Amino acid sequence: MVVVGESRLCKYISFLYNHNVSNTIGDKLKQLLLKAKREIVIVAPYISKNSLIDIIKNLDKVKIRILTRFSLEDFISGASDINVLSSIIKKNNIEIRYYSNLHAKVYIVDEEKAIITSANFTQNGMYNNLEYGVLIESNLNEMLNDINNLWENACIVNVDIMNLIYDNINV
Q1: Dihedral sign from CA coordinates of 41, 45, 50, 54
Q2: Residues in contact with 17: Cβ distance below 8 Å, sequence separation at least 6, in sequence order
Q3: For residue range 23-62, what is the model confidence (pLDDT) as tens digits?
């Protein structure tokens, strides 16, 4: 079965892409985020303003864990937006941690569905760039265990660390 922007590889895996069609990765992720009941895990090295940020900021009853990079160079170059991270870290249900060498892009909702993609959590990644990904709707245990292990060993982003970055850049 082939749908515009999405093709079914097997019963639990769909192929997603962002070119020559209306956006599928961003739209599919939006659908998943809006249906979240318990937890959202966002693993993306680069995060900047995009329409999905407003959605996660309004999901007050859903726990949100964000694993990202947190690099002065990334903020100075504009790859990530310190103001976006600063606005979401203030929410009680959102926690941010980081790894300096993170490159993976994985989005998990309620431990049931995951999008693994080349798309960062940015406007270009979700809506403008040529990106590919897969939606997985089954057997996430091994991936969840690995991400949870990374999470436990990642550095915590807090207001003090955020202020250090602000002190070193013009925002």
Answers
A1: positive
A2: 5, 6, 24, 25, 130, 131, 132, 133
A3: 579 999 999 999 999 999 999 999 999 999 999 999 999 9
